[in-house]
Amino acid sequence: MSEVGSVEASVAEAFHRADTLKAPLDERLDLYMEESRKLFPALESAYDDLAARLRENGAGRLVPAVGEALPDVHLTDSEGHLVRLGFFMERGPLVISFNRSPWCGYCGLEFQALARAYPFIASVGGDVVSIVPKLRPQAQALQQKYGLPFSVLTDLDLVYASSLGLVFWAGDTIRQAYETLGIDFSQFQGNDGWLLPIPATLVVGRDGRVRARFVDLDFRNRMNTEDILTAVSEAR
Questions:
Q1: Top-level class of domain 3-235
Q2: What is the pLDDT of residue 1?
Q3: What is d(CA 230, CA 227) in angstroms, rounded to the nearest whole number?
Q4: What's the pTM value of the predicted model, to 2 decimals?
Q5: C-alpha to C-alpha distance for 225 and 116, rounded to whole angstroms
Q6: Residues 103-156: pLDDT tens digits?
Q7: How far is CA 77 from the centre of its chain?
Q8: Could you give the residue ranges of the DSSP H alpha helices within the chain?
Q9: What's the CA gap between 188 and 138, in Å, rounded?
Q10: What is the pairing mode between strands 167-169 and 195-197?
Q11: What confidence score (pLDDT) does residue 178 get?
Q12: Domains in the chain: boundaries
């Protein structure tokens, strides 16, 4: 097996171990991070520095607080249809997940967790959407890769995420590391800006107001599924 193939196999094994761990999402993410630090120590160190930089810059401050209204927007779904985010809200409690890409193992673990939680969310009249900065074919491939039963919406050029203060520049160190791993942002996003969204999870009620939110400037941390389900139940 080639060196690249060996690394890919190790990443896949780390993801599988984390995804099948019988534990809350935060513990699965921690396990994946432990394995990733062994495989990519320099990259994980760069992530540590990035999270510290974002905290200093006060990123994410524009995300509506609990009780405030979430701005509406029109986005394209993975089938190419223009949809209004408010349409989903009006039907029942909505879980909105801002995410990065299929190459992000941390995002993959969250996608899997949301997919498993979806039957309960749907059973109480709720729904889930994931918002990603991807071209439509890439968003469609992401949805198929994880077998997501909910809509994946494309936020091209991160316009909507930017309005919420959820965008950052990857930086030269991370860019060089990604290029070494064969990750080409232009292939996924249709531009060479090397901008990414800060992953965030919001639970919004039918009135369009935020009922629960999770915004962590370290993208390796995500909202636990149990907290999402509690917020959805209370918002229905």
A1: alpha beta
A2: 47
A3: 5
A4: 0.92
A5: 9
A6: 899 999 999 999 999 999 999 999 999 999 988 888 898 999 999 999 999 998
A7: 16
A8: 3-19, 25-39, 41-57, 85-91, 105-123, 136-146, 159-163, 172-180, 185-189, 225-235
A9: 6
A10: antiparallel
A11: 87
A12: 3-235
